[in-house]
Amino acid sequence: MRGNLRVSIGLCALVDGVTEIVLRIFVVSKIKHESNSRLGIAAAAYAVTVWGYGNVLVRDIPLAGSEVAALRLWLGAGLAIVLLYVTGRKLSLRAFYVGLGGGISFGLNSTLFFTAVKYTSPTTATIIGALQPALLLMVVGKLFGERVTRSSILASFVALVGTVVVVLGAPKSGHDSLFGDLLAVGALIAYCTYFVFSKKARESLGTFEYQASMQLSAAIVVTPIALLTNGTSAVSLSDMFLILVLTVIPGGGHFFMNWAHNKISLSIASLLTLATPVATMIFAKVMLNQSVTLLQVVGTAIVLGALSVLVLRAPKLDVAVAD
């Protein structure tokens, strides 16, 4: 617990390191940006990094996955609504409707994934989740007119191979179960639809409006699931602190990713999530003192190398966005 608190405090300091991105989010409105811009890629990279931290942190919260998801989402919704009104914006009925699809998908993803890691090994859950880019590459052309090049397909395949090497290179936990695997598959499907809904919603909603409406609808969806499956449990102050950290840091990563959706293509955003297992491995080493094998180091180099090639070769187009 103490180790986790130290890392949480350190990551709070890391948030200060992305202040420039936050300031740019606040001051830029309805101007032209470069698709696959460096700032958009930086925001997405920060998001996938802190999500890796969240994958490790959630295992130390002694509550059911649906309970963790519900508490996190209500806290996130409250913070998002406060930010919305502080910045002079309002949560309209239209914004809530536009964000509903993403909220339902995100709520289901949070519940299913947080529950899956309680029943199956993180290795299995991670490798199932790593299939997301492969699924999304099949639809981005038809849905958003994005051009998927051969180099993108090759880089994504190489990155996926590297991800498999990373997760399979970890020591086996011996806690796999078919039920947990099926939950992870459900989380994967919900995560793919969340990315698609978010990309679509950001065409007409600003980041703050979408984040508030998405989190609120997700919390409303998840709450009855948590109550029906687990009832109510006693939550300690230390549990609430960890859930707050989970909300602000890994949960805050969704704000950065949703902001980046109109700065980078959906295929690039999805492929960058392949770095999450690498981040998870690093945080597991720091927080849980888990050993890192040579195979994992090789896999990490493959993932980062493939993603670097993908980002450097990403096409750049001028697009108008709503912030």
What characteristic shape results from the CA principal axes?
globular
User: Beta-strand percentage?
Assistant: under 5%
Order of helices and strands: HHEHHHHHHHHHHHHHHHE
Report helical residue fraction.
Answer: over 70%
Largest sheet, strands/sense/barrel: 2 strands, antiparallel
Helix and strand layout, with pairings?
Blueprint: H1 2-16, H2 19-27, E1 32-34, H3 38-57, H4 65-86, H5 93-98, H6 100-119, H7 122-129, H8 132-136, H9 140-144, H10 150-168, H11 178-201, H12 207-230, H13 237-248, H14 252-260, H15 266-272, H16 276-288, H17 294-312, E2 318-320
Antiparallel strand pairs: 1-2
List the keywords.
two-stranded antiparallel ribbon; mainly alpha; 323 residues; disordered C terminus
Can you give a write-up of this model?
- This protein is mainly alpha-helical.
- It is built from 17 helices and two strands.
- The protein has a two-stranded antiparallel sheet.
- The longest helix has 24 residues, at 178-201.
- The termini are far apart.
- The relative contact order is 0.23.
